[in-house]
Write a structure and sequence with these properties.
- This protein is mainly β.
- The chain has one domain: Methylamine Dehydrogenase, Chain H.
- 6% of the residues lie in helices and 47% in strands.
- The chain contains 3 helices and 28 strands.
- The protein has a 4-stranded antiparallel β-sheet, with no helix packed on it. A 4-stranded antiparallel β-sheet has the order 2-3-4-5, with no helix packed on it. Strands 6-7-8-9 form a 4-stranded antiparallel β-sheet, with helices on one face.
- It is globular, with a radius of gyration of 19 Å.
């Protein structure tokens, strides 16, 4: 296992994201900056100065636009090439998560109210209209609610994550009380199950959307996206903040790997004075439901994990502000243990 550490943030790194081509890596932290790195050389090639600390980000399929969201409610769009800010929109809610739909037609945003109301609001914008409104404002402040939402609906639970499913035909929601919910595009519940003890912390997919992975306080589970039937449960001793499925699981190449990675650990305030924080990355076999090994070296909770697009490595985002890029060596491809 080869490791390269990227140190470009001073605060906890919340999110890492590859563009569709896989040549750029974007990282957002609890600070007013997004960094972009060249994937193959690991050099930082630029930074984007945001209005507030970054909670979530996404990039368009053509790598033309970068969108960021913050807990202060600011949505901001940048030109990827050059780093120019097109504009920002200050909403009256906290932005917990955002992502673009497949095809980039819609911008999905998970909002949370500042008042005592615990439930969350989902807002869906037409991305072209949202982008045009920012351009028309010409860097001036846009009044609240002046950019209309294409769709909006309330959720009955406090939510950690909401994501588009295959071809945007449905939405999947992970809640703070451990539920996994499947919604239609209008926000109506199709299926609702108890997924985890405690919170459902993350939702991710296999490359072909044939498998859903969720992580929580009890480990990671893998689901049939149509029926939400649990296919595999890999239990861990500490909470798993993130899980990612290898892109090689689809069998498009000769090197088929039914593997996933997961990581998390006890929050820093709970692990004080304890040697067992659980700050390791688990490499697991989904088919057999077992750990193949652990990768140590992190000294704080792991906030986000993502596989390299070619499946030959992965990237972790740490609470200590470090991005770690791992590359599998020959043992991973030759040893029967990792088949």
């Amino acid at each position: 296992m080869k490791l390269i550490e990227l140190r470009g943030h001073e605060k906890p790194v919340n999110f890492v994201k590859f563009n569709q081509d896989g040549d750029l890596l974007f990282s957002g932290a609890a600070e007013k900056r997004v960094n972009v790195w060249r994937n193959h050389t690991f050099e930082r090639i630029g930074s984007y100065k945001t209005q507030s600390a970054v909670k979530a980000l996404d990039v368009t399929d053509d790598s033309q636009y970068l969108i960021t969201g913050s807990l202060e409610g600011t949505l901001q769009v940048f030109l990827v090439d050059g780093g120019q800010s097109i504009g920002f929109y200050k909403t009256k809610y906290k932005c917990k998560y955002l992502e673009l739909s497949q095809g980039n037609e819609y911008l999905l945003v998970l909002f949370e109210s500042y008042d005592s109301q615990a439930n969350n609001l989902v807002g869906i914008y037409k991305f072209k209209d949202f982008l045009q409104a920012l351009k028309n404002a010409n860097q001036k402040k846009i009044p609240d609610d002046s950019i209309p939402m294409y769709k909006t609906f309330n959720l009955n639970y406090t939510t950690n994550k909401i994501r588009y499913g295959y071809l945007n035909k449905c939405l999947y929601v992970g809640t703070t009380n451990g539920k996994l919910i499947k919604l239609d595009p209008e926000g109506k519940v199709i299926l609702e199950i108890d997924a985890h003890q405690g919170e459902t912390l993350s939702i991710s997919y296999s490359k072909d959307y044939s498998l859903i992975a969720t992580s929580g306080n009890d480990g990671a589970k893998f689901w049939d996206p149509s029926t939400l039937k649990c296919i595999r449960f890999i239990k861990q001793q500490v909470q798993m903040n993130s899980v990612a499925i290898s892109p090689l699981i689809t069998g498009e190449t000769e090197d088929v790997k039914y593997h996933c990675i997961m990581g998390g650990g006890l929050p820093a305030r709970e692990s004080a004075g304890s040697k067992a924080g659980g700050y390791v990355i688990h490499l697991c076999n989904i088919m057999y439901g077992e750990d193949l090994g652990t990768i140590s070296g992190c000294f704080g909770p792991i906030n986000h994990l993502v596989f390299q697009p070619d499946g030959r490595g992965f990237v972790s985002a740490g609470e200590e502000g470090i991005i770690r890029c791992y590359r599998f060596d020959g043992t991973y491809w030759e040893s029967e243990t990792f088949q």
